[in-house]
Design brief:
Elements lengths: L3 E8 L3 E8 L6 E4 L2 H11 L4 E4 L2 E5 L2 H9 L3 H14 L6 H5 L11 E8 L6 H11 L6 H8 L13 E6 L2 E8 L2 E8 L3 E8 L14 H22 L6 H8 L2 E3 L2 E3 L7 H13 L8 H12 L8 H13 L3 E3 L6 E3 L1 H25 L9 H19 L5
Antiparallel strand pairs: 1-2, 2-3, 4-5, 6-10, 7-8, 8-9, 9-10, 11-12, 13-14
């Protein structure tokens, strides 16, 4: 027996959709539409240039108009869309049934509210999102869920509060749950960060299921998306971004003054940054002579061997990069907050991470057996095995 009939169609205003009719009483029906397809149809009708991103929008010639179109997808328009197709399609209620007052009413079975943030530099998107996942594995805890959904959670609140990391092929997704609601976040087509809240039961938020409640659910869904991003942003410690890292390593110019970059792991730069960490503790700042003495001590040289011109150049270097600033009406300098954090990051990352890790990884340098050494040995062995299986070995 046929239990359901599916009707797949394309609407002029809403794009692709489907209607599912049940063949037995009470003849339930199910309508599925996609708001992104509605937005793209409206853009095309208004002849506004755009580039699609799967079921989203990658770029648009008029972003403000696109936002108004999205905001304009109301419960009234969805209801009118359904009534139009019920007039065109055969369905279980005959003309006599409709005259007797039998008609379909719409309730919300599932609603998804998504936020797509297109990345300026997609090449860094995957690394960024994997870092977000690592830093936010505790999002599923009740105290975090309570912040995201702005709902009080007690021991009697039903549902499992957890964070799931789902990897489909090579695309990971982060999922956080509250009762029957789920927030999913993933890297979409290597171009954008997609955050979407799926509400499967409006009663989770004390809201009815009828279609006129859509504005209330929309407010909750988009607020949850924004709040998740805010919680993720606050979870990160202060760290150097890619642009800042490259700017410190590159040469800099201010007016007619130029200075070379402070290259990471350069021994002379390393000594210079070590000095800044110490000078940060001086309330009255430091002088040119202080820098000469400190650099000589860190490099094992006689202070007299460092010329005044060389020290002046190093001061200009640090000042143009924003690591130090000159105190007004004096010959003293003060380490900026940015300079202290950058110096601390560069020196600690090199001393505590790179040097000991390379000693464990590189052949001929490691002295003891470490977990990192064993992991790299296994990788090397597996690569050799695959090369032999593929007959690529010399």
């Amino acid at each position: 027996m046929v239990n359901h009939y599916y009707v797949y169609a394309v609407d002029r205003d809403f794009g692709p959709f489907f209607l599912k009719f049940c063949t037995y009483f009470p003849f339930n029906a199910k309508l599925c539409i996609n708001g992104h397809e509605y937005a793209k149809r409206q853009l095309a009708q208004e002849k506004i240039a755009f580039e699609a991103l799967d079921n989203g929008v990658l770029s648009c010639a008029d972003p403000k108009r696109l936002q108004k179109i999205c905001d304009g997808l109301s419960a009234q328009k969805i209801d009118g869309f359904l009534r139009k197709w019920l007039r065109l399609l055969p369905h279980p209620f005959t003309g006599a049934d409709r005259k007797a007052g039998y008609r379909y009413d719409i309730s919300i079975l599932q609603a998804e509210f998504s936020l797509t943030q297109v990345l300026d530099r997609p090449v860094h998107g995957r690394l960024f999102f994997e870092h977000v996942i690592r830093e936010n594995l505790d999002l599923g805890r009740p105290e975090q869920v309570q912040l995201i959904f702005n709902r009080k959670i007690t021991r009697k609140t039903p549902g499992r509060f957890r964070t799931r990391i789902v990897t489909q092929d090579v695309t990971p997704s982060l999922m956080v749950y509250y009762k029957n609601t789920c927030i999913k976040q993933y890297h979409k087509e290597n171009r954008a960060l997609r955050t979407e809240t799926t509400i499967n039961n409006s009663y989770d938020f004390g809201i009815g299921k009828r279609l006129h409640n859509l504005p209330k659910l929309r407010e909750i869904g988009f607020a949850a998306n924004r709040q998740l991003l805010e919680v993720e942003r606050l979870s990160h410690d202060c760290m150097l971004t890619e642009d800042t890292f490259q700017s410190i390593n590159s040469s800099v110019a201010a007016g007619r003054q130029r200075a070379s970059g402070l290259r990471f792991a350069d021994p002379r730069v390393h000594s210079l940054l070590h000095s800044l960490v110490l000078f940060r503790q001086l309330a009255e700042g430091f002088r040119c002579a202080d820098l000469r003495f400190r650099l000589a001590a860190l490099s094992g040289r006689d202070p007299e061997s460092l010329s005044q011109g060389a020290i002046t150049y190093q001061l200009r270097r640090l000042r143009l990069h924003g690591l130090i600033e000159r105190l007004p009406n004096s010959f003293r300098y003060r380490v900026t907050e940015f300079g202290f954090r950058a110096a601390l990051f560069f020196t600690r990352a090199y001393n505590r991470l790179l040097r000991p890790a390379l000693a464990a990884v590189l052949p001929g340098l490691r002295a003891i057996d470490t977990p990192l050494k064993r992991a790299f040995d296994k990788i090397d062995q597996q690569i050799n095995v695959w090369s032999n299986q593929a007959q690529l070995a010399a």
